[in-house]
Amino acid sequence: MNADVNADVITVSLEQAIEAGDEVQAPTFARQLLDLGQTPTHIAAALSRAMSRLGERFRRLDIFVPDLLVAADAFEAVMAIITPALVSARNPRHGKGTIVIGVVEGDIHTLGKDLVRVMLAADGFEVHDLGRDVRVDQFLDAAREHHADIIGMSALMTTTMERMKDVIDLLKSEGIRWDYRVIVGGAPITQQFADEVGADGYAKDAPTAVAIANRLIEGNVI
Amino acid sequence: MTSRERIEAALCREKTDRVPVFLRDLTLGLDICNFTTPEICAGSYDAEKAAQAVIQTQRRLGHDCVVGGIHDLGLDVDTLGGRVEFPERGIPYIAEPGFSRPDRITGANLPDIRREGRFPGLLRSYRLVRSAIGDEVAIAANMEGPVTKAGLLRGLDNLLLDMVRSPDTARAMVEFSVVLCCAQAAALLEAGAHFLFIAAASDGPAAIRPKDYLQYTIPGLARIVATANERNAAVVFHPHGPFTDERFRPLVDVAIETGIAGFQFGEGNDLALAKQLWGDRVCILGGVDIAETLLPGPRERIETETTNIIAGVGGDGGFILMPSCSVHRGFPLEHLRAMIETAHAASDPVV
Q1: Which one, of A88, A163, A65, A113, lies nearest residue B213 by Cα?
Q2: Residue A2: pLDDT over 90
């Protein structure tokens, strides 16, 4: 078997390992691909395809949150291997856009946000995860620090979702509202709420967040 | 009929004089009485103020069923090594679960819920509410389901990963949680609750796989139901997920087989279809979508949705109208009032 054919087989195996949430085999396949001379971009593309398929199956409820969580772990194990090379190569995939993401103040439900982070990274965005219980001003500080294109906010509680409006209001009062696009999501969030608070996008799940982020970037509105 | 009779009849799938309403308002009363969250929930739990908040809210809005205290998800967490935060005007939340380290699960002791932490205060609130309005108004003991409780104690992401990678850890955590749930069920019923409401956000396909539901949720639910039935109390089960979707209907059937009296369907379900499929075996609970309708309003939209739901489900009894999930402080009272008043007007009478 020549190197190209072997690489093709291993690439398929890598994608299958990601979809199966195999955090041992997935990085092993990634290392083998690097040893065969494949680029980090090639591997990142494989990750992206696998996560995209998972997102679609999740949307159809053919798979469930635990399946996504183990896949996310496998994904991050591979990303830990290829990220240094991606960054040093100034890979164009990471030129796709920069996003700061977090769970708003008073809310600690990170599961949905974590899945969004992984799916965005798999799609080639540079993601800065601010974690949970993020203060209003911290979103702005991080957006400035990382020269973000998009601010992503998540909330699971009706009592904390209003913090999203506070962030957008602060962007306005600082005169930098149109320096960033804002995506909101989480269980109590609706398109109507997103419209009312002035967000640019509403994502009901992780795959939708990726689609919205791409639409905002590709729409060249940033 | 009194409110209590109305709820009890509905749970027995009998006709009622009008469609009963249960708000499952867990912290809403804090706004009614203008209490801060720490004022009641932090420290040893202020039972008198909690009961006052519950009673005042029922008097203000006129719903048929109350939860017997101000409820938060961390009521037992501090006694199990975790940490709960109490925002001044927000909902208490678990900042640190007690069992984020799996080695803490083996050999962990159940807290004495009648003496330790905030739970004794909650029990006293139930007694006060029962004494004040319990003859007239139904009192639900709000508590968590097996996986939901385990997720709170372990951290939900940890638990879900355990289910895949470390099933022994998941089993141990859920077992501990079920024993705790049964103890809490018994204590809440003894304190005056008329029935159990098992809030189970993480016990359905919105969070776990169907096979996890069958392995973890159903056996635990059966034990909680047995605990309630020993005390002649009914159980309502409220997991999250699209249960009227054909693929997930068997999950409702197995829940009904545990002996539950009611099943609350959340968002994304067809209530009329649920009534058609299971209405001869279980009381159907459910109602106005919180995120899409009840929270944003306006009043006319809430009235329309309420009227449509009652027309589709409520006509022949065996139905309790609810918001699609729990409501909390900060919720617009006028929106809840619109739902309740529409229910009273639209469903008068169904006998």
Answers
A1: A65
A2: no
